[in-house]
C-alpha cells in the first residue's frame, strides 16, 4: 500500500487485493444501529442473536388430544388451549383435553392423540401414547437454552432469521449500517442516449453499475456524468459525491494518459491507496483508495472497458462492501471446468462462464473481450485460473459467482 505520491512496485496479486479490500471495509464498518424486525430483511447482524428465554419456554403439546396422568382410563377434568396456563392435573387417572401449541399441565405423564383415543359411556378416556416416534410434546429448552447464541454477528438477515428473532421475543435487531455508494462516469467520448457513432460510444456502466452495487448491499445515492475530462471537474465531482456516500465508484481514467485525471485528483485529496493495480486479466488497471475525512470514505477506480469494470467490482468493491456490512468474505466454491481455460501468465485469469443445468460444471462463454458485455449477460460468474496455471476440462477450479437478487437464476 502506498500514498498517492508514490508508485507501487507492481500489480497486487488478485487474492491479496480481495483480502486488502475486505480488511479495509471491515476496519471501517460503522457502529451498530437498532431497527425494527420488519425493516431488517437484507441487513447484517451486528451482535450475536441470543435466546432471550428457553425455547420453547414451557412444555408444549405438538398434538390435539389428551394430557394424561398415570395409567388409564382417565377422567377428563377440563380443557387447555394455546395461550392458557392450566392447573396441575389432580392425580393419577386424570386427564385434560389439550390443543396443539398449548402448555402441558404439571403432572402429565403422557399425551394421547385424539385419533388414538376413545371415550367410554362413563366419560372416561382410553388410549395408548405413541412410543418411539416423534415426541408428542416439546420440552423447555429443547430448541435453545436461555442466553444461548443462535446466530453469530455477521449473519445475513433473511426472513428465516427474522422468524427466529421473533420467536425469541425480539422487537428490533442490532445491525450494521448500510453502505452508501455513488457513481461518477468519466469520459467526454460517452453518450448517455441513442446509438454509438461518429467516434463516440454509449455509456453502459452508468446504467448497470448501480444494480451491481445494490446486489452487493449498498444504497446507491446517485450517478453523475459524464464528468468533463478536466482535473477541476474530477475534483468537484468526487468531493460532491463523498459528501453523501461512503464509497465512490469511478469509470475510466485509471491509467496515466493525457486526459486521465483520477490519480492527480486522488493526490490532491490526500488519498491513500489500498490497492493500486491488480494482477488480473481482464480488468487491468483498477484501484481502491481511502479518502481522508471525518468518517471512512473510499474511492474505487474502475477501468473504462465494461467487462474490466465489472471485474474491478467483483475484485475490489464486493469485498470492500462485505467488510463495511460486517459480513464474512465468502470462500470461492469449487466447480468442474466444462472445457479447457487458458492461464494468463503471471496474472489471475477471470474467465466468464455459465453453469450447466445441474449447476456443477462451468463452461466459458464467448464474446468476452474487455470491452464486451454480451458474454457477461450469458454468464453466472467467473472461473478463476491462478497465475502460472491453466485449467483442463474436468478440473476442479475456483468459481466467483455474480451476485443475485432473491428469485434470480
Give the helix proportion (percent range). Answer: 10-25%
Sheet with the most strands, sense and barrel status: 6 strands, mixed
Low-confidence stretches: 1-8
How large is the share of residues in beta strands? 25-35%
Radius of gyration: 30 Å
Count the helices. How many? 7
Number of strands: 27
Helix-strand makeup class: alpha/beta
Please, what is the average pLDDT?
91
* CATH class category label of the largest domain: Alpha Beta
User: What is CATH's topology name of the largest domain?
Assistant: Molybdenum Cofactor Biosythetic Enzyme, Chain A
Task: Provide the number of structural domains.
Answer: 4
> What is the 3D shape?
elongated
CATH superfamily of the largest domain: MoaB/Mog-like domain
What is the CATH-assigned architecture of the largest domain? 3-Layer(aba) Sandwich
Strand order of the largest sheet: 17-14-18-22-21-19
End-to-end separation: 38 Å
